């Protein structure tokens, strides 16, 4: 299969691209690098698909980042700063992928989760819940046998180590990558695949 992995320079995206590349032809895209895309910019998504053509078998988006955002942020713009890329950007990616992924192919998005609410997590909860609801409902609208799913990783062990935090609550990135491989190679439709402790 020919698979586009967006966010391939990140911890999760790199591991996903490597895992899929063991059996498939992988195109690695990111905001920086030889193949560029910014999911918050629809023109950037359009340009990427125009360059790659219509012979993709799957699209995987691992570029959904978003940090903690305080509810009392000083401005609306600051509060909503993570919305465009993680939620709206991934929805726009799905809408554009409809005409560029081959019959029976798949699109896999990235949600996420917290083990419990913490200060600054309310927007993350909102975005993740909305994205998972979108995947569940939009899967029924996908044409030509296309499948739509999401992967919801918790903390990644390698990320916790890089942040100087206790890595024990995290899942190894290879385990997270396996969930994306399952979404691409399996037959799931409209599901959110969770990784790590719930």
From TrEMBL:
Gene3D superfamilies: NAD(P)-binding Rossmann-like Domain
Keywords of the record: Oxidoreductase
Pfam families named in the record: adh_short_C2 (PF13561)
Organism: Streptomyces cuspidosporus
UniProt keyword annotation of Lipid metabolism present: no
UniProt protein name: Short chain dehydrogenase
Similarity field: Belongs to the short-chain dehydrogenases/reductases (SDR) family.
The keyword Flavoprotein is assigned to this record: no
Top-level division of the source organism's lineage: Bacteria
